[in-house]
């Protein structure tokens, strides 16, 4: 039928795929194919050449790598990420890979169909809560308890430094996770990596080292 918007979608969780398919079909879209990993979604997209490819970020094979490959191979197809991740690094990596949309799975159901129609109209579409989180980061007053340019801090990634800076301000793991839209487990992983990089035994030792320089 003329005017149909055809979609190939990928998510490694079958119930999530079923829910998304129902939302899309109820919104008047046509789901041409479904995949559970990056390799399959690339193959299916090349076969069906849809209007939109809808990708999860954290699926087998890496959704951002799939986005980059599809942006190169199918320049006429819009790539949109549908994810739980509010991590700004995931957002920026997705945009660099060629995605024109970044929507969250826990948005209101009609946000998905509205966002897809926006990208089909030539607009970018990013979930409002992600935009709000990034604006908060840029508008937040500087409160630096140690230098980003120190030799110790130079060993850390931007996210690791951000985690340690917030911990140095007295925030708990859970508070840091909430502030950065991460899980507490992810915060703990970042801290463990920092301890290994700085060759110290605990968080306070890492903070003391970063403050010294």
The gist of it:
With 213 residues, this protein is an alpha/beta fold. Helices cover 53% and strands 13% of the residues.
How many domains?
Answer: 2
Helicity range of the residues?
A: 40-55%
CATH architecture of the largest domain: 3-Layer(aba) Sandwich
Record the strand order, biggest sheet.
Answer: 2-1-3-4-5-6
The structure class reads alpha/beta
- The dominant shape is elongated
Describe the structure.
The chain has helices spanning 14-26, 38-48, 63-73, 88-96, 109-120, 128-139, 158-168, 173-180, 184-198, 203-212, and strands at 6-10, 30-35, 52-55, 78-83, 101-104, 125-126. The chain contains 10 helices and 6 strands; from the N terminus they run E-H-E-H-E-H-E-H-E-H-E-H-H-H-H-H. Strand 5 (101-104), helix 5 and strand 6 (125-126) form a beta-alpha-beta unit. The mean pLDDT is 88. With 213 residues, the protein is an alpha/beta fold. A 6-stranded parallel beta sheet has the order 2-1-3-4-5-6, with helices on both faces. The chain folds into 2 domains: 6-134, Response regulator (Rossmann fold, 3-Layer(aba) Sandwich), CATH 3.40.50.2300; 153-212, Arc Repressor Mutant, subunit A. It starts with 5 loop residues before the first strand and ends with a helix. Helix 2 runs parallel beside helix 3 (63-73), helix 7 crosses helix 9 (184-198) and helix 8 (173-180) packs across helix 9 (184-198). The protein is elongated. Helix content is 53%, strand content 13%.
